[in-house]
Amino acid sequence: MKLFMKLTLQWRITILVAIVLIICSAALTAFSILNAQRTLMPLINGPISITKADDNSDDIVIRGIDDNEIENESTRFGTAKRDFDLKSIMVFLALTTVGTGLVYFVSGKALRPVKNLSKQVSEIDERDLSQRLTESLSHDEVSSLTKSFNQALERLEEAFNRQKRFSASAAHELKTPLATMKAGIQVLKIDKSTTLEEYKENAHMMEASVDRLTQVVNDLLIMASPNEETDELKEEVYLDVMFETIFDELSPVYEYRGITYNIECDAISFHGNAALLYRNFFNLIDNSYKYNREKGSITVRGSKTNKCVSIDVEDTGIGIPAEHIPFIFDAFYRVDGSRSRKIAGSGLGLSIVKSIIERHGGTISVSSENVKGTKISIQLPQ
Q: Which residue range or ranges hold the Histidine kinase domain (predicted)?
């Protein structure tokens, strides 16, 4: 069996069909030989001869046969029977041989798309996942398999590209504060007459860089292993209290911009990880402040059904262009495409938000209109 499984699919099909063909042909040949024997033996051993009365008449004459004639007829019929048996066996062998060859040829033709598919798959390199398999015009199983494989390649290519962007962005986020710290140290080493104020300035700059590094690392840890912090999702969370606390914390920071807020939810409560949910909505509301216009507004709505809790965070900010919406939850993704620090942040906020929501079994979606504002909608199961 192990040897059989090592054979190619074409050979396995050929062998299996050949076995069936041999069994059927052997049964048919044996039946023919036995049937011929049953039919001929009474004539060989019979004591009568059946002949026509004459060439011009359809009448028959039945007469007895003497022993010499019986022996001669028996020999002749025996020879004919052996010839019949031999020819039957030869035809059986010829048909099974030709049939097996035809099965191998036809199965090879039928399996050619599979061989071509296997060849194309083997040529795909992990460094270039943009290649696609050639889809046939037929609607058979091979065509369906090819389409499914191409769809899998598209998902893999997207995942690899996201991973590459993540690696490049992470390297940049970690490199920038390290470069700042190194520059400060080099200045102190070169300048022999550094004053106390300059030392303090460099120390402050390094502390800020360390804080930034720490924040990035902590955010990455939350994204990489959310389970470690969300083993317990049974704390009772009150939405109105949580939102009031968040706005009390953030509104003084952005007071100079004149942004107002409105909380539209009753005393809604549900179960989850209070600390992570607080951080989740803190990030969303903080973004609504950061990307809002002067004297804009932020509205938070909450509602509850038997199955889920729905929360909307809506602002009157600058909005998100449609082409960027599919990527805003990617780690380090920034809509402006730059690394400027005009608006602080590492680009991990929304990635963390999505990670926390999914850990709670919820979903998150975005609707936005450029220059008019953005609405983040969250559904959390009860």
A: 169-382
Provide the CATH topology of domain 141-224.
Helix Hairpins (1.10.287)
For the chain, the residue count is 382
0.85 surpassed by pTM: no
**DSSP H or E stretch at residue 304:** strand 297-304
Report which listed range, 69-78, 215-224, 324-333, is most confident. 324-333
74: tokens are 């028996």
- Structural domain spans, the chain: 2-122, 141-224, 232-381
| SS3 assignment for 185-240 | HHHHHHCCCCCHHHHHHHHHHHHHHHHHHHHHHHHHHHHHCHHHHCCCCCEEEEHH
Cα 76 to chain center, whole Å? 74
The pLDDT confidence band at residue 259, using thresholds 50, 70 and 90, is very high
Residues whose CB falls within 8 Å of the CB of residue 261, separated by 6 or more in sequence, listed in order: 247, 251, 297, 298, 299, 300
Rounded Cα distance between 293 and 271, Å, is 34
